[in-house]
Amino acid sequence: MRPVENGIYITVQAVNRSKFIKRAFHAFGAIVALSGGVAGTAAYAQSAPQGAIVIPDDVKIFGNDNPNVRRATAVVNGSVITGTDVDQRLALILAANQGQISDEERQRLRLQVLRNLIDETLQIQEAKASDIEVSQAEVEQSYARVAAQNFNQNVGAMDAYLKRVGSSPESLKQQIRGELSWQRLLQRNVAPFINISDDEVNEVIARLKASKGTDEFRLGEIYLAATPETRDQVHNNASQIVQQLREGGSFAAYARQYSQASTAAVGGDLGWIRLAQLPGELATAAREMQPGQLVGPIEVPGGFDILYLIDKRQVLTADPRDALLALKQISINFPKGITEAQASARAEQFAKTIQTAKGCGDVDNVAASIGAQVVANDQVRARDLPGPIQNAVLQLSPGETLPPFGSVDEGVRVLMLCGRDDPQVDGGPSFDQLMAQMEDDRINKRAQMYLRDLRRDAIIEYN
């Protein structure tokens, strides 16, 4: 809770989202085929499709080289990723989750950070190979903007904060450089070859109009890939992530580091979608969800999904929560030492007195007669109110009040509705907005393929 203009208390959730083109962070793994005998392997390979990776059922591992037991350093096409690089990037995630991560979870997160750093290095290298440079001045400018928009700090305070949590300004600036480099590379090498026809856009607009009034869902996802052999392990990992999210972990932070879907770069945000666009298993789960609810892990073809419902609305229909409200808040404080029973009795008497007021024009006089304070705000958006109050206030008529709320320490308050401006009917995205969105989606798919090619051709040495 925080105060807004004129003292009315509301909850506000501000979302700052970068307009970077989505990056793909699919985890990659090496599959090694080992056999106990040459003849057995040859016979198996002859029956497999051309190009198939052949792994015998009786696989035997020679030696003690466990690929999962490595120091978190790598050399990617000659560029060194140090343990310090991993530690500093990991520190940002730990800070976002207030350090509430188990040692086992920290190790898995560390490996994911290393994979992300490898991707980032490949993207910067490819941009340089294509003569795309990001100047230090541009990086510094973006860094200052991140400090101001996302952390409400100046550059000096941001530097101190990063060092305090165990990271560094250089680590965040390198991440910014990677994002800018990849964005420009895609704009030059991919975007010019993406073509969306007018007919395609008009077809989507027609479908939107035909689906007017149906529900749309803004969902966050964390997708973990699994094979039949790794199914149980991945399910356990997903279950642990769900548990940590329910204990207060940041969904966006976990999505960025764990999700193997292309939406990882934007914190798992799928944007506004309809259930028909989802696989059946996910559509069934999302249909019953309420905003703020988390479900999962849900088994889907190829792995497991964790879903978070950010918001819900109806297609091309005005959302009542976008109504602009004029409210008056009437409040009294309790004397020190008052008991819970005494406070309840005073709150009940206070509410009855306020109900005698004949609308907002009379409430100031009634409040003054009992020593109550009145503050007014005529610019309160309904969706910015806390959930229980939001739903209740939308049912009021002008001059009506909500039941009193508060506590022994903070006193008791009553909200009176003085006016309401309902939102206009949503006309949906414009032709240009829809075309831009479709272009971004196709660029994102090409970007995934581009990054897979870079991974496949990379020379990576682990130390």
From TrEMBL:
This protein's record includes keyword Chaperone: yes
Keyword Membrane (UniProt): yes
TM helices/strands, residue ranges: 24-45
GO MF term set: peptidyl-prolyl cis-trans isomerase activity
Keywords: Chaperone, Isomerase, Membrane, Periplasm, Rotamase, Signal, Transmembrane, Transmembrane helix
Taxonomy, superkingdom: Bacteria
Domain PpiC: 214-311
Pfam families in the record: Rotamase, SurA_N
Signal peptide residue numbers: none
Protein name, UniProt field: Parvulin-like PPIase
Species for this entry: Novosphingobium endophyticum
Lineage of source species: Bacteria, Pseudomonadati, Pseudomonadota, Alphaproteobacteria, Sphingomonadales
